[in-house]
Design brief:
The chain is α+β, with helices and mostly antiparallel strands. The chain has 13 helices and 20 strands. The strands form six sheets. The protein has a six-stranded antiparallel beta sheet.
Length: about 425
């Protein structure tokens, strides 16, 4: 068996499919592990399957280096020769969602909501790049850790300007939308339907439709209504039932108008859930989006910050920073109010969306705190460590720097106004 493809050395198989095998491989140049999809030479030479497989390869080759999103698997390189071909991708260690789509391996309702929210962000980003995935299913959503997921396998994707006919029937039968079955022109709403099926399965451990034959399955997908997830699993809130069933509406126009509208409803039902104990990533994302400092960043950059920050809820009366103590972290007040004082004298009151402690980030070194920050209500705080921020992508760091500069200018302007009014 061939154990090396270009600069990649095969280490162990991760899984196999109709067109080939995916291996964990080692990039001998970049010195890191990657996932290497190696196409089966017999399949490439097959009169029927070969054309489909080469089409999948061309899709992934076209996307190499183009999709940059924290919840989409990166494609590094694609090489096709006469009798072989491979695609090098980001290695994701946690497997896929299949293990959580069984009745004996179900995630909590809140974890399912978070996976849905992050998938919306990824598929919205792909759609804005002119891409419809067309094969969303648990096996194609990989797990980094916890609810940190990455959408994978764009081999069946419909690309803007691509040669694949928009009405060609593509997908995995149980997850196909009614319009895919009908063979009509597809939009992003077919991915929304398939994502609804994924959420249904993650919530219940069952597929919404099954059939003894493909014909029977397709007839049920096209004409029958599935039972609400809450009728199978009691802790699914009614509002989540409504969301999932709306995603799976028979007519595309009856689904959510945009991925953002769907994500907003998922975030709201997650926030209202009485089972939630930790601060959900969707809540962090929403707070960052509304803040003055981070609000102008794009979604991929915001997700970078979500994953590099620490968040906590603190009771009223908690001292967050003390004057004259050294520190190198910056903070964002997500909810509640804090007071700023120096030597016991009140200087200011900060509200949700305000930042404090950012001089340590600007200086790039531990700074002596000039004031004491104390919570006057229950608060939600995001904490940003200098070392963690320095590991963000260059584009993300640049946008944060611009935001900090705007904040400093606004504070100087405010100080000038106060000085002029007091003179």
């Amino acid at each position: 068996m061939q154990t090396r493809f270009g600069k990649y050395e095969l280490k162990r198989p991760l899984g196999s499919g109709a067109s080939g095998t995916v291996y964990c491989a080692f990039d001998t140049y970049a010195r890191k592990e990657v996932a290497l999809k190696v196409f089966d030479p017999d399949v490439l030479h097959d009169p029927d399957l070969g054309e489909v497989t080469r089409g999948q390869f061309m899709n992934e080759a076209a996307l190499a280096g183009q999709l940059s999103h924290p919840h989409i698997v990166s494609i590094f390189e694609a090489v096709m020769q006469d009798d072989s071909g491979y695609v090098a991708m980001e290695y994701v260690p946690g497997g896929n969602l299949l293990k959580f789509a069984r009745s004996d391996g179900l995630l909590s309702v809140d974890e399912v909501i978070q996976i849905g929210f992050k998938s919306c962000s990824a598929l919205d980003y792909a759609f804005r790049q002119g891409i419809i995935h067309r094969d969303i299913k648990p096996a194609n959503i990989l797990v980094v850790a916890g609810t940190h997921i990455k959408v994978a396998d764009f081999g069946s994707a419909l690309l803007k300007g691509g040669e694949t006919p928009a009405d060609m029937i593509v997908g995995t039968p149980n997850y196909m939308s009614p319009e895919q079955i009908a063979g009509v022109k597809l939009t992003q709403y077919c991915d929304m339907y398939s994502m609804g099926v994924v959420l249904y399965e993650l919530l219940t451990g069952r597929k919404p439709f099954t059939g003894a034959t493909i014909e029977e399955l397709f007839d049920r997908i096209s004409n029958e209504a599935p039972p609400a997830p809450g009728t199978i699993r009691r802790d699914v809130p009614p509002r989540l039932d409504e969301i999932v069933l709306r995603m799976m509406s028979k007519q595309p126009d009856d689904r959510y108008p945009t991925w953002a509208d769907l994500a907003l409803d998922l975030a709201q039902v997650g926030k209202l859930s009485v089972y939630q104990r930790e601060i959900a990533d969707s809540e962090k994302f929403g707070i960052l989006r509304k803040s003055e400092l981070f609000g102008r960043l794009n979604d991929p950059h915001l997700w970078e910050i979500v994953h590099s920050s620490r968040w906590s809820r603190l009771p009223s009366g908690t001292t967050i920073l003390r004057e004259n103590q050294a520190g190198q972290n910056m903070f964002l007040l997500g909810a509640g109010e804090v007071k700023v004082s120096k030597r016991g004298h009140l200087l200011n009151v900060l509200k949700a969306g305000d930042c404090f402690g950012e001089m340590a980030i600007i200086r790039g070194a531990a700074a002596t705190r000039n004031a004491t920050i104390e919570a006057t209500t229950d608060v939600l705080i995001g904490e940003f460590d200098f070392a963690a921020l320095s590991r963000l992508s260059e584009g993300c760091r640049l946008q944060i720097a611009h935001g900090l500069l705007r904040t400093l200018v606004e504070r100087l302007d405010a100080a000038d106004i106060r000085l002029s009014q007091s003179s």
